[in-house]
């Protein structure tokens, strides 16, 4: 741990204007959060309340667990302050000199605030693609806490108020004050029940049982509220599973139609249905019947793999992600007919693809193929006006010769004119997500062909 993480109280008082109301951005059961600038970056300063016997444990839990966690979907710990000071206070009508403990944690500042601010009784005010990415990001964050370390970390207080959003609405799990670092993923019991009503599973409320399925139950409630508002859980109880799934899917399809002016496509409908089904399974009363967080992450990954196949499949209906441009191709691709690999068993084989931008504007490109079989460098990026980009495509080593030299793989190049301020490859993926919602994206499909080495030599 770096000494830079130990931030003095005087410094924190200075950057928060002595913890003024003007600098306060939020408050919770265990502390208030203030905004401040530290070493040139904006940070969130969480000052714990003076609650005897409670704040010390919450502070220690959150610091120790967050200090070991490094994941894009878990809020980053910047520093801490733990100081004792003498202060005159009035007690029973008399002035006494008391010892005051200041416990403060500092985090990266999240401009998007908390998720609960976007959830109303009947709906969420975020669009579906944003909701879907929040669901996926939250699942990835929980999976990391449960599996990435020698001892799993159970959050035990997951709720929309503890999911923060950055300026791009990317989700990050926060507030690990109640979290537990456990020796295994088996069930444990706790004597004191702490948490938030409605997000705690029945076995914890009834007997204090804590397991990896605790956070899964909380996740299910979050997804349900994200997809159907704060009253979603009540509606689910009243409707039952099938009617509730139909209700949620119908509502989101209507919103998608209104947003885009045409019927929602098959891909987004699949995502909506899958997420509401996952939520229902996560909140079943019987702990053993809930999926593990790994099951949830795997299901979403399998769904995305299926969607990718749909996008790559030829002769797909108009409901797929990509469309062929009516105009001439915005990007010239060489070779134009097929991508050839001179195949040798047990060797990585590479070939080159040339992308040429002949226009006077910048063009974004995104390459899609079987990621486990091929490596593409770069796979996305920006091509400046009247310039070229060379792409290295590598067929990863195979254990044996392929039975046929003609395979069914397809190499797909998506491209689109950049009509907004897009300057780096890092933003290309987000650009295509937005572009494919309504803008025409040009697509070039190249079949992949394997040529045997002896056949190539005889040519």
UniProtKB/TrEMBL annotation:
Domain MSP positions: 330-451
Transmembrane segments: none
Binding site for ATP: 47
Domain of life of the organism encoding this protein: Eukaryota
PROSITE patterns: MSP (PS50202), PROTEIN_KINASE_ATP (PS00107), PROTEIN_KINASE_DOM (PS50011), PROTEIN_KINASE_ST (PS00108)
Domain Protein kinase, chain residue ranges per copy: 19-303
Protein keywords: ATP-binding, Kinase, Nucleotide-binding, Serine/threonine-protein kinase, Transferase
SUPFAM superfamilies linked to this entry: PapD-like, Protein kinase-like (PK-like)
Gene Ontology molecular-function annotations: ATP binding; protein serine/threonine kinase activity
InterPro entries for the chain: Ig-like_fold (IPR013783), Kinase-like_dom_sf (IPR011009), MSP_dom (IPR000535), PapD-like_sf (IPR008962), Prot_kinase_dom (IPR000719), Protein_kinase_ATP_BS (IPR017441), Ser/Thr_kinase_AS (IPR008271)
Family to which this protein belongs: Belongs to the protein kinase superfamily.
Protein name according to UniProt: Protein kinase domain-containing protein
Species name: Urochloa decumbens
Upper taxonomic lineage: Eukaryota, Viridiplantae, Streptophyta, Embryophyta, Tracheophyta
């Amino acid at each position: 741990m770096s000494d830079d993480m130990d931030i003095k109280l005087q410094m924190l008082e200075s950057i928060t204007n002595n913890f003024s109301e003007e600098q306060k951005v939020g408050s919770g059961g265990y502390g208030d959060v203030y905004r401040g600038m530290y070493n040139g970056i904006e940070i969130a300063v969480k000052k714990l309340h003076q609650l005897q016997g409670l704040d010390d444990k919450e502070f220690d839990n959150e610091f120790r667990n967050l200090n070991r966690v490094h994941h894009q979907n878990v809020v980053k710990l910047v520093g801490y302050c733990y100081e004792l000071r003498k202060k005159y206070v009035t007690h029973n009508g008399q002035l006494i000199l008391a010892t005051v403990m200041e416990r403060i944690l500092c985090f990266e500042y999240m401009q998007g605030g908390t998720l609960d601010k976007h959830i109303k009784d009947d709906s969420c005010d975020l669009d579906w693609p944003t909701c879907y990415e929040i669901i996926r990001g939250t699942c990835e964050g929980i999976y990391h806490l449960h599996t990435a370390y020698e001892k799993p970390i159970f959050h035990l207080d997951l709720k929309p108020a503890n999911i923060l959003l950055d300026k791009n609405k990317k989700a990050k799990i926060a507030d690990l004050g109640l979290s537990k670092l456990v020796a295994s993923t088996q069930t444990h019991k706790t004597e004191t029940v702490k948490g938030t009503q409605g997000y705690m599973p029945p076995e914890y409320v009834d007997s204090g049982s804590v397991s990896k399925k605790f956070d899964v139950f909380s996740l299910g409630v979050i997804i349900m509220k994200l997809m159907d508002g704060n009253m979603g859980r009540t509606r689910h109880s009243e409707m039952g599973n099938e009617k509730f799934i139909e209700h949620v899917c119908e509502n989101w399809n209507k919103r998608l139609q209104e947003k885009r002016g045409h019927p929602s496509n098959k891909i987004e409908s699949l995502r909506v249905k899958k997420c509401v089904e996952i939520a229902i399974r996560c909140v079943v009363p019987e702990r053993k019947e809930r999926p593990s967080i790994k099951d949830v992450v795997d299901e979403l990954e399998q769904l995305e793999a299926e969607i990718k196949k749909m996008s790559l499949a030829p002769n797909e209906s108009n409901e797929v992600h990509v469309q062929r441009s009516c105009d001439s191709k915005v990007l010239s691709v060489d070779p134009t007919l097929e991508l050839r690999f001179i195949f040798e068993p047990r060797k990585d084989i590479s070939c080159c693809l040339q992308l040429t931008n002949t226009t006077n504007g910048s063009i974004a490109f995104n390459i899609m193929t079987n990621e486990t079989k091929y490596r593409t460098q770069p796979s996305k990026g920006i091509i400046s006006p009247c310039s070229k980009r060379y792409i290295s495509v590598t067929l990863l080593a195979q254990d044996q010769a392929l039975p046929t030299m003609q395979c069914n793989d397809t190499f797909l190049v998506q491209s689109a004119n950049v009509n907004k301020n897009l300057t780096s490859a890092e933003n290309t993926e987000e650009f295509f997500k937005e572009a494919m919602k309504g803008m025409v994206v040009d697509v070039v499909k190249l079949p992949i062909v394997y040529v045997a080495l002896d056949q190539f030599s005889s040519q």
